[in-house]
Amino acid sequence: MAAATHKERTLIAAIGDEDTVTGLLLAGIGDIDIHQRPNFLVVDAKTTQEQIEETFTAFTKRKDIAIILINQHVAEVIRGILDEYNAAFPTVLEIPSKDHPYDPSKDSVLKRVQLLFGD
């Protein structure tokens, strides 16, 4: 039964700046489900922490999303929620943006892997 659930997870969701999300949409990840909910959120200066948290939480509850890509600088805004999230699906990956390079020391998933392997 669990395997069937994973087969339904076919989408990649994105939470990030305009350039990142636009690039991912051009690559073909964009989708709007039957409830008219997109699988992406463009974060700009007007986006509130609450909007980011609500979107992240909604993405984690959707059964059609396998991976959530989030810009690392956006992830910092909701770090508490990300650090508490421990489900296998959807998997959360922090990615760099054009203006903010990737910092492995801030990545909560990488920290968990390092703890697991004792690094």
Describe the structure.
The protein is of the alpha/beta class. It has one domain: Rossmann fold (3-Layer(aba) Sandwich). 41% of the residues lie in helices and 18% in strands. It contains six helices and four strands, in the order H-E-H-E-H-E-H-H-E-H. The protein has helices at residues 2-8, 18-26, 49-61, 72-75, 79-84, 108-117, and strands spanning 11-16, 40-42, 65-71, 91-95. The chain has a four-stranded parallel β-sheet with strand order 2-1-3-4, with helices on both faces. The protein is globular. 21% of the residues are buried.
State the gist of this model.
One of its GO terms (cellular component) is proton-transporting V-type ATPase, V1 domain. By secondary structure, this protein is an alpha/beta fold.
Tag the structure with descriptive keywords.
ATPase_V1-cplx_fsu_euk; 119 residues; 41% helix; Rossmann fold; hydrogen ion transport; transport; globular; single chain; alpha/beta; four-stranded parallel sheet
Q: Provide the residue-averaged pLDDT.
A: 89
Q: Can you give the helix content as a percent range?
A: 40-55%
Note the overall shape: globular
Q: Give me the CATH superfamily.
A: ATPase, V1 complex, subunit F
Distance between the termini: 35 Å
Characterize the largest beta sheet: strand count, sense, and whether it forms a barrel.
4 strands, parallel
The CATH architecture:
3-Layer(aba) Sandwich
Determine and state the CATH class: Alpha Beta
Oligomeric organization of the protein chains: single chain
How many domains, as an integer?
1
